[in-house]
Design brief:
The chain is mostly helical and 187 residues long. It has eleven helices and no strands. It has two domains: 7-85, no CATH class; 100-186, no CATH class. The chain binds iron/sulfur cluster.
């Protein structure tokens, strides 16, 4: 059902089709060459859901993390849990990507980058991020109204509508749904 995305396209696809929560995690791992556990889970399972194959996922995380830690440590501490997410280790459960509800209810601590930006960012940071997604000041005010009323998924839906210039009647309830709807429009 999912299209496959390959490693060489991933930066471009992140820019054009990832919802803000995943754009943020993606930018952070590129910038810091590291993500704490909550972020690795949230982004890692999302990437699996958009069709990144296990070998590409290992290559992606390895390329970033080994800029900070040796490849020995990467293999020992991180590769296992990536394979685990793909059901290749432990109980071999095929873990599903997180829905908005779960992400919104998560509780990122200091140094964490997971969570839902509409819920967990400061107002200034959220405005700056929405600006980078190309929202006009009018579009931004609409989104901020939803945020003030704690309608985080509606805020995300309005962002989607502003970015792609089309209505999203179903509403956003899953980051992978956001991705798929955007791919439908862009293709
Ligand atoms: Fe991500 Fe869902 Fe929040 Fe949108 S509403 S940023 S898809 S968690």
């Amino acid at each position: 059902e999912y299209a496959e995305i390959s490693l060489k396209d991933i930066d471009q696809v992140a820019k054009s089709s990832f919802p803000l929560c995943m754009r943020h995690l993606f930018e952070k791992v590129r910038e810091d060459h590291h993500l704490k556990h909550g972020g690795r889970m949230q982004l890692g399972l999302f990437l699996k859901g958009v069709g990144l194959k296990l070998d590409d996922a290992l290559a992606f995380w390895r390329a970033e993390f080994t800029k900070k830690v040796g490849s020995e440590r990467f293999d020992k501490e991180y590769a296992y849990s990536i394979r685990h997410n793909y059901g290749k280790e432990g109980k071999r459960t095929d873990y599903t990507p997180y829905a908005c509800q779960k992400i919104i209810l998560s509780a990122p601590g200091a140094g964490d980058h997971h969570g839902c930006p509409y819920r967990h960012f400061s107002e200034d940071n959220l405005r700056a991020a929405l600006g980078r997604m190309g929202l006009s000041s009018r579009g931004m005010e609409g989104v901020m109204d939803q945020v003030r009323n704690k309608h985080y998924q509606l805020a995300c839906t309005m962002t989607f509508e502003a970015v792609y210039g089309t209505s999203c009647d179903a509403g956003i309830n899953h980051p992978n749904q956001y991705f798929e709807e955007s791919q439908k429009i862009l293709k």
